[in-house]
Amino acid sequence: MRLEAADFLRYLESERNDSPNTVKAYGRDVAAFAGFLDGYYGGESWTWAGVDRLAMRGFLADASRRGWSKRTMARALSAVRAFYRFLNLHHGVDVNPAKAASTPKLEKRLPAYLDRKAVDRLFALAETRAGENTFRSVRDRAILELFYSTGMRLSELVGLNLEDLDLVSDQVRVRGKGRKERLLPVGRPAVTALRHYYLRRDELLREAAGAERRAVFVSERGHRLTPRAVQLLMRRLLDVVSEGQKITTHSLRHSFATHLLDAGADLRAVQELLGHASLSTTQIYTHTSVERLKHVYHQAHPRA
Fold first, then answer.
1. Domain containing 21 — which CATH number?
2. Would you call 259 a catalytic residue per the annotation?
3. Which of 75, 253, 254, 259 is catalytic?
4. Is the pLDDT confidence value at 1 over 60?
5. How far apart are CA 38 and CA 80, in angstroms?
6. Are residues 55 and 15 in the same domain?
7. Average pLDDT over residues 193-222
8. What residues make up the domain containing 242?
9. 153: annotated active-site residue
10. Catalytic residue flag (residue 173)
11. pTM for this predicted structure
């Protein structure tokens, strides 16, 4: 990787406080762009300042031929734009070949979510399994309750430490994208499930060697759960109630937002709860609510 690109990734991590996933993705995109330029200029020496709009268009055309999705191409274009803004600030490069490039038009995809009946079935299932009183079943119910109670992201949940959860004040502190912190209320059912889980967790950690004692959610060996592990354990619950719908762990966050708005919650309040930087990101859930209302209307109205 060229020196400037490596500097860019350090800048994203240390100064912009971007998430590890964003840093990793932007690193791949800039590396792909540099790799394309090596071939585009036929092995001749080139500089970032010498890259023009034709080269940028060639990169996007090449990405399309390689089968990149529009979403991936849009992210790559965003990465290159950010990289050139960095070069302008820190390396005196006064061009940005990505600035005038057209962002691929993305299809609007409404987020998948569970309706209220499916949520009721989901929690009934989790409660039945938790009745077995095994460490895993009690922990999985606590994770499910906290997900739906707060709408937090998967990365935020696995990163929780004991000091982040205040079960007396019924609130949790999470670190979101850009390492921004926010406080979220925690519902009473989630608090109850967490207290029950803490008892089993304490029993487990008394015997576990090398346990990660600060982590809220741990494996049966006492290690902090990974995002992949949480996805798999949630899938075991979600697959039972999904009825063929493509429901993922992130769908719990979508369900949280959709159900709040359906019940009349203020859009800006939901934005704060979700940790969205832009209100436009939250507004997709209003479209979900409208689509649901249309479905109900067409099913129920005699002259729909």
1. 1.10.150.130
2. no
3. 253
4. no
5. 16
6. yes
7. 93
8. 116-247
9. yes
10. no
11. 0.71
